[in-house]
Design a protein that fits this description.
156 residues, alpha/beta, two-stranded antiparallel sheet, 5 helices
Length: 156
Amino acid sequence: MQLHFYGGAKTVTGANYLLEAGGLQLLIDCGLFQGSRFNDELNYEPFAYDPSKIDYAIMTHSHTDHVGRLPKLYRDGFRGTVFMTEPTEAIVRVTLYDTMEKIDDESRAIGQEPLYTKREIGQVLKLIKSIRYNESVALNDTVTLTFHEVSHILGS
């Protein structure tokens, strides 16, 4: 088992961790970097891993710094299943579009193309499989996913 930190370490935004376990590549969170122009630029950098090789993306909760780059992940090749709790899914289905509007305004201000489009949001939303708290899902013969409530935010 190996855990790689690609955001959310030594900073409080851009949560993005790659867990290699049981022959799977599991992405834990895929958040936006927030808070400064430098962070805005980090959002446009290529992922440090190949999104098309990620088997599952697991979202811990709906904060933008944990889910905000999911549509970019889709754009860059991810086609696996996105797991999250039912409350997180309900929130994400609204907030990704709201976040896109803010990103569009900011990207134009710095002369960048938008980070992602409504189409990419719609496509990544189709990949979501929400599960209940304490429900276990076998990802393969050795890896099981179970969400437990931690009370950080509704759905976490």
